[in-house]
Amino acid sequence: MATKPIFKNDYPPGYLKTLVLSYFVDWVIVAVLAIGFFLVDKIPPFHREFSLDNKTISFPHKANDTISMGLACVLVFVIPLILMALISLFIRRSPYDCHNSLLGLCLAMTLTLMITHVLKITVGRQRPDFIARCIPSTKVDPPLGLTSVDVCTQTDAFIFNDGMKSFPSGHTSLSFSGLTFLSLYLAGKLHMFDERGHTYKSFVSVAPMIGAALIGVSRICDYRHHWQDVTVGAIIGICCAYFSYRQYYPHLGSPRCHKPFSPRIPRPIAQKLDIPERNGTDDNDWMRLESVTVTDAHPTKLNVTE
């Protein structure tokens, strides 16, 4: 068994620069989405009228979340990032795979953030604890209509505005975005759909999504979201994760689903290296452009590169 180091410096002249620049636009899109989120987050939400007798928004306001946003970021971004880096660098020995997994995860998270917060400020749905946040000056609705936010006496602008950002659930959408991406990554590395029926592969691959579901449930228990908010948030997160994953990895039914798509090498450089053009995933000729371990192991193993 021949082994190559994780990092090497025998790339053709201009290869690394070309490879980095080929993904520059992708990283710019991620940065634009991230900046856009911070700008959108400063916009006040739509002020929807409500009824003071509405029981669905009359729950008590809890000061602290069961899972804070900081803890959620660790669970749905930092941990998946570390796991994918360990797998790509120390099992697959492919920095290129590590880069694509990081880029895909960042794209999924920023896209989810942007979509979620645009919907939040546009819809302006009240949270289940909105009336407790509002602290209304009256307990009776107008005789011929609904109550406006003018009756609210809440002095904390953040608590007040945040009370009108129920739909969809940001915790849930982010959780399903990051952890679904991790599930897809694990499923690809394990060849979950290899028609061999290894149940453990399914459990390992689905486990992150179960964690995302529990985070969503905690938002309902904390009276931060209605069940519809959590459901739609989960759908947004799953869709963004799948979209981002498929930008850089083949579908899970592919025999090469454990590898990212071929590097974006322009035709002149590919011809100079005598590498055949491919429209799909990489083959043996691309292995010298990735730092990988060459092994004769079965193709369904995690350390496979063939």
The domain count comes to 1
- Rg, nearest Å: 24 Å
Shape: elongated
Q: Classify the helix fraction into a percent range.
A: 40-55%
What gap, in angstroms, lies between the N and C termini? Answer: 13 Å
Counted by DSSP, the helix tally is: 10
Instruction: Return the average pLDDT rounded to an integer.
Output: 85
Percent of residues in β-strands: under 5%
Largest sheet: none
> How many extended strands?
0
List keywords for this structure.
306 residues, mainly alpha, Acid phosphatase/Vanadium-dependent haloperoxidase, single chain, elongated
Q: If you had to describe this structure to a student in words, what would you say it looks like?
A:
With 306 residues, the chain is mainly α. The protein has one domain. Helices cover 52% and strands 0% of the residues. It contains 10 helices and no strands. It has helices at 15-22, 24-40, 69-91, 95-123, 130-134, 157-162, 170-190, 199-221, 227-248, 267-272. Helix 2 (24-40) runs parallel beside helix 4. The longest helix has 29 residues, at 95-123. Mean pLDDT is 85; it is low at 278-306.
In brief, what are we looking at here?
The protein is mostly helical and 306 residues long.
Layout of helices and strands:
Elements: H1 15-22, H2 24-40, H3 69-91, H4 95-123, H5 130-134, H6 157-162, H7 170-190, H8 199-221, H9 227-248, H10 267-272
Helix pairs in contact: 2-4, 3-4, 3-7, 4-7, 4-9, 7-8, 7-9, 8-9
